[in-house]
Amino acid sequence: MRILIFLLILGCSTNNSDRIKNTDEFDNIIAVMKTRNVDELIKVFGPPDNRTVEELSYKETAKHSTITAYLDKDKKISRIWVFYWKDFDNYTALKKRFKSYTWKEKKIADNSKSDVLTDLYLVSVPELNMTFEYDNYAPQRKIMWIYFN
Amino acid sequence: MNKTLKSIILLSLSFIHHWAIACLPNEIHVREHTVHAYKKKDGTKVSTHIRSEHCREIEGHNYFQNSTNNHFQGLKAKFKKWDEKEKSQLTKEVENLPSWLKKYKLTEVLRADKQERNASNPAMTIPATKTLLIFDKFFVHQNKRAVLIHEFSHIALWDFPPDDLKKFFLANGWKYKDGSKPIPPQKAFKDDSKNSPSEDFANSVEGYYSAPERLKSFNPQAYSILDQLIKQKERQP
After folding, report:
1. Rounded CA separation B182/B169 (Å)
2. ipTM above 0.90, yes or no
């Protein structure tokens, strides 16, 4: 039994360090954005599901969200768009995930004429050139776009 | 359960970052929150703890309320009492919704004279709490079913898979290239579709049922994607 516990702990801790090093999609995106290199993107995320002259897109998998990388004139990655949209409280998850970074949040004026009540905020994480918008009145505060510029 | 086995399971779970909590149409998502110490009816003391996010079944769904305990930031409307005739009229219209939309249950249906910032709105939705507000304009509207399809679509939108929604929005002309808010299409099915992807989606679903030919000819590709999305939802138990 002790051996089983030891192996389980070892397995879990190994998996966890792998996750931190390799499998967290945000670490991967941040690493790719540092190089802005398409080859690096493909190395990390594999071949895209769809590719055009201007963009490479990936469908959602267990390892990453729906992702689109946009290319500039020099074929370098100019920005990555993540369609986050997860089945948990997206805002809280991101706030926990990026707690070691500067977190700036500002209220956005709502469309007061709309037939849907919104309470919108723009969040930016300047160190990562990351921005996203969330609606406090959206179920699970699902986030449609996170940009890494 | 064996104590050691329990510890192993708990330890393993602690390494898992997030659980997917897909709430059903008849459930509501409750965010992580602090539960303050209290005493149960049987006298058991419960200490202050963090209750993690979860889904809660909406009991006594679709019921009418004359007021609400919720405080809705930014909502400008004065609630009023329901009239019995209005209640039965609305119930009848809800019964007449497409089957996949009818699965969405509301926590409360409120009544007000008008939306003070836009008196022409017949109804309003607050998706997170699954609240529906009905204004006077609703009862003189020519197509009440279309109004409800539109409002329920604002709630249903959040349950569609991201890849499918992305495909739909791109086909409808939304651009996500600016690094800021999505850029609306130059030409939209309805003027207010440009307000947000959510509004565009609700207008499209409304059009799918009340003006399908017009929606199809306006953008055949987006229509075909929406058609697939709705048919998938219809097939779900």
Report:
1. 10
2. no
